[in-house]
Amino acid sequence: MTKPKQAQSHTSKVLDALVNEITPREQARTDNRMLLAIKIDDARKAKGWTQQVFAKEMGQQPSVISKWLSGTHNFTADTMWDIEEKLGVELISLKEREWKVTRVVEYKITVQSPGLFTTEYVSPYTSLSDVEENTIETKPYKYG
Known about the structure:
- This protein has a three-stranded antiparallel sheet with strand order 1-2-3, with no helix packed on it.
- The chain is 40% helix and 15% strand.
- β1 (106-113) and β2 form a beta hairpin.
- It contains five helices and three strands.
- The chain is extended.
- α3 packs across α4 (62-68).
């Protein structure tokens, strides 16, 4: 019996350049696709299905299932819901979240003269220097 070869270190300027071009957003998307593929494959295995059985249940060719499980496939929502139904696993967690739209306002109060205040409404997600002059709503308030 022969020993398996150990991985050898290899460097490539071309490969390094390609890897360095990947943005953090692209890397996050790739990571999420890989995690999704793992979750689907774990659910398939938990049902005791081979990839061929899973393909038959999904009405797909085994090559399509291989692509799904490679972590490179960009699923449609409909396909993900079909997979959820067949495997009995939740992939899209819409029910767990309550979406509520709320207007968030940050107040900045400045004193213009004794007894007279101006309140500026500024988004809390931007610095004052980033806010355009016409987006600030200013209302004078008289104290007392």
